[in-house]
Write a structure and sequence with these properties.
mainly beta, five-stranded antiparallel sheet, four-stranded antiparallel sheet, 6-blade_b-propeller_TolB-like, Glc/Sorbosone_DH, Glucose sorbosone dehydrogenase, Quinoprot_gluc/sorb_DH_b-prop
Length: 420
């Protein structure tokens, strides 16, 4: 689905039916609003949905800080408590959640802030603060004015009375090739439990929908998940390092525009959420070397129609089906930002996947049963559904277990969900 406004659909009706504000809780909605990719069944029947122990959790919503211009990424500093926030227009800030103090972090890169491009995600080196590197993903151009997704790193300095800054920031990976246009950069970055850096790259809105599409071309790094060392080199255990016709950095391919990625603590597996064409949004468990089908397999509609875009994943050999999807005609769930909840503030939600949705304007909560590609995913009642907020990013505060959400707007807040 696009990153823009969606048509009015049944999700609009759900939001109008009553959202969560303050300590108010919604009655449980009718099970899963999408389809389970593991068995292809529609979970909208109440009888099919497993019980929801987290349905009656009461919470309050607090404003942490305001005035951000299209915030995109969130990352907490371990043993510090402060929060790094990126803004798509190029700003990088350090926020103290205790009092809302905002400091500008110097040294962020120059970015291509057009369309869906700009300063995107932020991640910390797993050994932070012993290794103080901060990683940013961003769109930037070449001399010809073409753009692509970049990964860069610099050392965060918090010493003395000077303002915080990124020292020695430089790009460490540039996804090839550069292309014209300003759409579908991805991009999320997260470190896996083995210490490698995973980065999602969009297909740059390539409309050559066929077997030669960039997402199906393993010689490119577009429409893919990259797996890198902390220095930005291709990981030596990547699946195609011995293939002279494939990009060494590739970990998975056949993606359209993945804008959410999280590690599931129970398994260490990488999960992603990505945009479909019209509807067809997906939740995927990422397999080494896996082909996720785009655009030769999809659950989406062609834009402006109710016609299937391509054969479904189950009708195409050699592709991996999503564990959960929003089929053609469903209204979709254009995603951005995800985290598995592992905090103490809301024990009933522990193990659930939280993912933001843009056009549908709420924070989704998903129960997950099973481990890998056989996992069953059930969407629960939406959070923050009455706010009219495009949900761009979500994170868990390590010390408290509070949920943080960044709102995609020109003058936006970062909000905190706490027990009522």
């Amino acid at each position: 689905m696009t990153d823009g406004l969606d048509r009015i659909d049944r999700r609009t009706a759900l939001r109008a039916a009553g959202g969560l504000a303050g300590a108010t809780t919604l009655p449980a909605l009718s099970g899963c609003l999408g389809d389970s990719g593991s068995d292809g069944t529609d979970g909208s029947d109440d009888d099919d949905a497993p019980p929801d122990d987290g349905a009656d959790v009461a919470y309050d919503v607090e404003t942490v800080a305001t005035g951000f211009e299209n915030p995109w990424g969130l990352a907490f500093l371990p043993d510090d408590g402060r929060l790094l926030i990126t803004e798509r227009t190029g700003g990088l800030s350090l926020v103290d959640p205790a009092d809302g103090t905002v400091e500008v972090v110097a040294g962020a890169p120059e970015v291509f802030a057009e369309g869906q491009g700009g300063l995107l995600d932020v991640a910390l080196h797993p050994d932070y603060p012993d290794d103080p590197r901060v990683y940013l993903t961003y769109a930037a151009t070449n001399d010809a004015g073409e753009a692509t997704t970049h990964v860069g790193a610099g050392r965060l300095s918090l010493d003395g009375d000077d303002a915080p800054g990124l020292a020695g920031f430089e790009p460490i990976r540039v996804a090839e090739p550069f292309r014209g246009g300003s759409n579908h950069f991805g991009s999320r970055a997260t470190f896996g439990p083995e210490g490698s850096l995973y980065v999602t790259v969009g297909d740059r809105r390539d409309t050559d929908f066929g077997p030669d599409h960039v997402s199906q071309d393993r010689s490119t790094e577009l429409g893919a998940t990259l797996r890198l060392t902390s220095d930005g080199d291709p990981h030596p255990d990547n699946p195609f390092v011995d293939d002279p016709d494939a990009a060494d950095a590739l970990y998975s391919y056949g993606h359209r525009n993945p804008q959410a990625m999280a590690v599931r603590p129970e398994t260490g597996r990488i999960w992603q959420c990505e945009h479909g064409e019209e509807d067809g949004d997906e939740i995927n468990v990422v397999e080494r070397g896996g082909n996720y089908g785009w655009p030769v397999a999809s659950e989406a509609c062609r834009y402006g129609t109710d016609d299937p875009f391509a054969p479904a994943h189950g009708e195409r050999d050699g592709v991996i089906a999503p564990v959960h999807f929003w089929p053609c005609g469903s209204g979709g769930f254009p995603p951005s930002g995800a985290v598995f909840y592992d905090g103490d503030a809301f024990p009933e939600w522990r193990g659930d996947l939280f993912a933001g949705t843009l056009a549908a304007q709420y924070l989704g909560r998903f129960a997950v049963d099973g481990t890998g590609l056989d996992a069953t995913v059930t969407e629960r009642e939406p959070l923050l559904a009455d706010r009219g907020w495009r949900m761009r990013a979500v994170a868990v505060e390590p010390d408290t277990g509070h949920l943080y959400a960044a709102v995609d707007d020109a003058d936006a807040p970062v909000a905190r969900i706490v027990p009522a």
